[in-house]
Specification:
- The longest helix is centred in the first third of the chain and has 28 residues.
- The relative contact order is 0.16.
- This protein is mostly helical and about 140 residues long.
- It binds protoporphyrin IX containing FE.
- The site of protoporphyrin IX containing FE (HEM) has 20 residues, from helix 1, helix 2 and helix 5.
- The site of protoporphyrin IX containing FE has 20 residues, from helix 1, helix 2 and helix 5.
Length: about 140
Protein backbone atom coordinates (compact mmCIF):
# COMPACT_ATOMS: atom_id res chain seq x y z
CA UNK A 1 0.00 0.00 0.00
CA UNK A 2 2.73 2.48 1.07
CA UNK A 3 4.90 1.27 -1.81
CA UNK A 4 2.04 1.83 -4.27
CA UNK A 5 1.65 5.36 -2.91
CA UNK A 6 5.33 6.24 -3.45
CA UNK A 7 5.32 4.50 -6.82
CA UNK A 8 2.37 6.67 -7.88
CA UNK A 9 4.12 9.78 -6.52
CA UNK A 10 7.28 8.87 -8.43
CA UNK A 11 5.53 8.19 -11.72
CA UNK A 12 3.15 11.17 -11.55
CA UNK A 13 6.08 13.42 -10.64
CA UNK A 14 8.14 12.08 -13.56
CA UNK A 15 5.17 12.60 -15.89
CA UNK A 16 4.70 16.18 -14.65
CA UNK A 17 8.41 16.87 -15.04
CA UNK A 18 8.47 15.53 -18.62
CA UNK A 19 5.33 17.49 -19.54
CA UNK A 20 6.76 20.71 -18.10
CA UNK A 21 10.03 20.28 -19.98
CA UNK A 22 8.29 19.60 -23.29
CA UNK A 23 6.02 22.64 -22.86
CA UNK A 24 8.99 24.88 -21.93
CA UNK A 25 10.91 23.65 -25.00
CA UNK A 26 7.96 24.27 -27.34
CA UNK A 27 7.30 27.69 -25.78
CA UNK A 28 10.99 28.62 -26.09
CA UNK A 29 10.89 27.78 -29.79
CA UNK A 30 7.91 30.07 -30.38
CA UNK A 31 9.74 33.22 -29.25
CA UNK A 32 11.64 33.83 -32.48
CA UNK A 33 10.37 37.32 -33.36
CA UNK A 34 10.58 40.45 -31.24
CA UNK A 35 6.79 40.88 -31.02
CA UNK A 36 6.50 37.39 -29.56
CA UNK A 37 9.02 38.22 -26.82
CA UNK A 38 6.37 39.99 -24.84
CA UNK A 39 7.53 41.12 -21.38
CA UNK A 40 4.88 38.89 -19.84
CA UNK A 41 6.33 35.78 -21.46
CA UNK A 42 8.73 35.38 -18.55
CA UNK A 43 5.77 34.99 -16.19
CA UNK A 44 4.60 32.04 -18.25
CA UNK A 45 8.08 30.50 -18.07
CA UNK A 46 8.14 31.07 -14.32
CA UNK A 47 4.88 29.16 -13.96
CA UNK A 48 6.03 26.34 -16.26
CA UNK A 49 9.38 25.95 -14.50
CA UNK A 50 7.81 26.22 -11.02
CA UNK A 51 5.44 23.40 -11.96
CA UNK A 52 8.35 21.42 -13.42
CA UNK A 53 10.51 21.94 -10.31
CA UNK A 54 7.69 20.82 -8.00
CA UNK A 55 7.06 17.70 -10.12
CA UNK A 56 10.81 16.94 -10.16
CA UNK A 57 11.03 17.17 -6.38
CA UNK A 58 8.00 14.90 -5.92
CA UNK A 59 9.43 12.39 -8.38
CA UNK A 60 12.83 12.42 -6.69
CA UNK A 61 11.28 12.06 -3.22
CA UNK A 62 9.20 9.10 -4.46
CA UNK A 63 12.23 7.55 -6.19
CA UNK A 64 14.43 7.88 -3.12
CA UNK A 65 11.74 6.29 -0.94
CA UNK A 66 11.39 3.38 -3.41
CA UNK A 67 15.15 2.96 -3.45
CA UNK A 68 15.97 3.27 0.26
CA UNK A 69 12.86 2.74 2.38
CA UNK A 70 9.92 0.84 0.86
CA UNK A 71 9.56 -2.01 -1.65
CA UNK A 72 12.50 -4.13 -2.81
CA UNK A 73 15.71 -4.11 -0.71
CA UNK A 74 18.04 -1.16 -1.41
CA UNK A 75 20.75 -3.61 -2.58
CA UNK A 76 18.52 -4.53 -5.55
CA UNK A 77 19.19 -1.01 -6.88
CA UNK A 78 22.48 -0.02 -5.24
CA UNK A 79 24.36 -2.93 -6.85
CA UNK A 80 22.92 -2.40 -10.30
CA UNK A 81 25.02 -0.45 -12.86
CA UNK A 82 21.89 0.17 -14.96
CA UNK A 83 20.40 1.98 -11.95
CA UNK A 84 23.63 3.98 -11.58
CA UNK A 85 23.35 4.94 -15.25
CA UNK A 86 19.77 6.08 -14.66
CA UNK A 87 20.79 8.22 -11.67
CA UNK A 88 23.71 9.65 -13.65
CA UNK A 89 21.38 10.66 -16.47
CA UNK A 90 18.94 12.22 -13.98
CA UNK A 91 21.85 14.38 -12.74
CA UNK A 92 22.75 15.27 -16.36
CA UNK A 93 19.09 16.15 -17.00
CA UNK A 94 18.99 18.47 -13.98
CA UNK A 95 22.32 20.08 -14.95
CA UNK A 96 21.12 20.68 -18.52
CA UNK A 97 17.96 22.37 -17.26
CA UNK A 98 19.46 24.95 -14.97
CA UNK A 99 20.71 27.51 -17.49
CA UNK A 100 17.54 27.58 -19.69
CA UNK A 101 15.33 27.80 -16.58
CA UNK A 102 17.44 30.60 -15.09
CA UNK A 103 17.56 32.53 -18.38
CA UNK A 104 13.86 32.23 -19.27
CA UNK A 105 12.60 33.07 -15.78
CA UNK A 106 14.45 36.42 -15.71
CA UNK A 107 12.13 39.39 -16.13
CA UNK A 108 14.45 41.39 -18.39
CA UNK A 109 15.28 39.38 -21.47
CA UNK A 110 14.24 41.20 -24.63
CA UNK A 111 17.03 40.02 -26.93
CA UNK A 112 16.74 36.83 -28.97
CA UNK A 113 17.09 33.68 -26.92
CA UNK A 114 20.73 32.49 -27.12
CA UNK A 115 21.18 29.30 -29.18
CA UNK A 116 22.70 27.62 -26.10
CA UNK A 117 19.38 27.88 -24.26
CA UNK A 118 17.50 26.24 -27.13
CA UNK A 119 20.22 23.61 -27.57
CA UNK A 120 20.18 22.70 -23.88
CA UNK A 121 16.37 22.55 -23.86
CA UNK A 122 16.38 20.18 -26.83
CA UNK A 123 19.21 18.03 -25.48
CA UNK A 124 17.06 17.21 -22.42
CA UNK A 125 14.32 15.62 -24.56
CA UNK A 126 16.08 12.32 -25.47
CA UNK A 127 16.83 11.85 -21.77
CA UNK A 128 13.07 11.79 -21.13
CA UNK A 129 12.96 8.59 -23.19
CA UNK A 130 16.26 7.02 -22.09
CA UNK A 131 15.69 7.46 -18.32
CA UNK A 132 12.27 5.69 -18.23
CA UNK A 133 13.69 2.97 -20.53
CA UNK A 134 16.53 2.34 -18.02
CA UNK A 135 13.99 2.45 -15.15
CA UNK A 136 11.95 -0.22 -16.95
CA UNK A 137 15.04 -2.46 -17.20
CA UNK A 138 16.04 -1.88 -13.56
CA UNK A 139 12.53 -2.77 -12.34
CA UNK A 140 12.82 -6.09 -14.19
CA UNK A 141 16.18 -6.92 -12.61
CA UNK A 142 18.35 -6.31 -15.69
CA UNK A 143 21.91 -5.61 -14.50
CA UNK A 144 21.36 -6.96 -10.99
C1 LIG B 1 16.55 10.76 -7.74
C2 LIG B 1 16.03 10.32 -8.86
C3 LIG B 1 15.36 8.96 -9.01
C4 LIG B 1 15.43 7.84 -8.23
C5 LIG B 1 16.23 7.63 -6.93
C6 LIG B 1 14.59 6.84 -8.84
C7 LIG B 1 14.37 5.56 -8.33
C8 LIG B 1 13.44 4.66 -8.81
C9 LIG B 1 13.13 3.38 -8.21
C10 LIG B 1 13.79 2.84 -6.95
C11 LIG B 1 12.15 2.80 -8.96
C12 LIG B 1 11.45 1.45 -8.69
C13 LIG B 1 11.93 0.38 -9.65
C14 LIG B 1 11.19 -0.92 -9.37
O1 LIG B 1 9.98 -1.00 -9.57
O2 LIG B 1 11.87 -1.88 -8.95
C15 LIG B 1 11.86 3.69 -10.07
C16 LIG B 1 10.94 3.43 -11.08
C17 LIG B 1 10.74 4.25 -12.17
N1 LIG B 1 11.35 5.45 -12.42
FE1 LIG B 1 12.67 6.41 -11.20
N2 LIG B 1 14.04 7.35 -9.98
C18 LIG B 1 14.48 8.66 -10.12
C19 LIG B 1 14.16 9.53 -11.15
C20 LIG B 1 13.36 9.21 -12.23
C21 LIG B 1 13.07 10.09 -13.34
C22 LIG B 1 13.59 11.53 -13.46
C23 LIG B 1 12.26 9.40 -14.21
C24 LIG B 1 11.68 9.82 -15.52
C25 LIG B 1 12.06 10.82 -16.28
C26 LIG B 1 12.02 8.09 -13.65
C27 LIG B 1 11.24 7.12 -14.22
C28 LIG B 1 10.88 5.93 -13.62
C29 LIG B 1 9.92 4.99 -14.17
C30 LIG B 1 9.17 5.14 -15.50
C31 LIG B 1 9.84 3.93 -13.27
C32 LIG B 1 8.94 2.68 -13.38
C33 LIG B 1 9.68 1.53 -14.00
C34 LIG B 1 8.79 0.28 -14.10
O3 LIG B 1 8.18 -0.12 -13.11
O4 LIG B 1 8.70 -0.28 -15.21
N3 LIG B 1 12.71 8.01 -12.45
N4 LIG B 1 12.67 4.81 -9.96
Amino acid sequence: MVEALFRALHLLGALGMATGLIIATLAGGSLATESERHPLAYQTFRKIYAYTALSTMLSMAGGLMLWLVVGKPAAFYSNNPVFHAKLGLVIVLLAVLIYPAWFLCRSHWQNPIPPTVRRLQKSALPLLIIIPALAYLVARGVGY
